[in-house]
Design a protein that fits this description.
This protein is an alpha+beta fold and about 160 residues long. Helix content is about 30%, strand content about 40%.
């Protein structure tokens, strides 16, 4: 169903792709937007238990697109080191394909929001108050991952083999 990566030497092991998803703090969510146009939007997220979670306003382009078509892709760039003299970029990135689901179960929504809050505001004493205050005014979305590939530049592959 999903294309094989053409440059297989540059394919990251699954564990490295997961590490990148766990480490990074934002990614680009790509959706099927209005009038057939792609809609790509940056989101803060958390990766946990093989899924990606992010929050959203209750209404808007992103929500409309998810309701209309649950199929999404999500891209995270870990490294983007431009090498002008070499006419290239040393990069590492992960692309995920999956299905987005707006969480309706309150327990799952709260657990996902806690994961997100712990990632971005660990140990904050007012965290539970902030979650309680905003809980009814936001959506939590889960991406169930169907396919994931990580890739790095050929130059980084060559550095590893030295």
């Amino acid at each position: 169903m999903f294309r094989e990566m053409r440059r297989k030497r540059q394919l990251l092991p699954q564990a490295e792709s997961v590490t990148i998803l766990e480490k990074m703090t934002n990614g680009i969510l790509a959706l099927h937007g209005d009038e057939g146009y792609p809609y790509a939007v940056p989101v803060s997220y958390v990766y946990a238990d093989g899924k990606i979670y992010f929050h959203s306003a209750m209404k808007g382009h992103k929500v409309d697109a998810i309701v209309r078509n649950e199929k999404v892709s999500f891209c995270v760039v870990e490294q983007d080191d431009i090498k002008p003299a070499e006419f290239t970029t040393y990069f590492r990135s992960v692309i995920v394909f999956g299905r987005a689901c707006i969480l309706t179960d309150e327990t799952e929504k709260r657990a996902a929001l806690n994961l997100l809050a712990d990632k971005y505001s660990p140990g904050e004493p007012s965290l539970s108050d902030e979650i309680a205050k905003g809980f009814g005014h936001l959506l939590m979305v889960r991406i169930d991952i169907k396919h994931m590939t990580g890739k790095e530049s050929i130059e980084l592959v060559r550095e590893k083999s030295r």
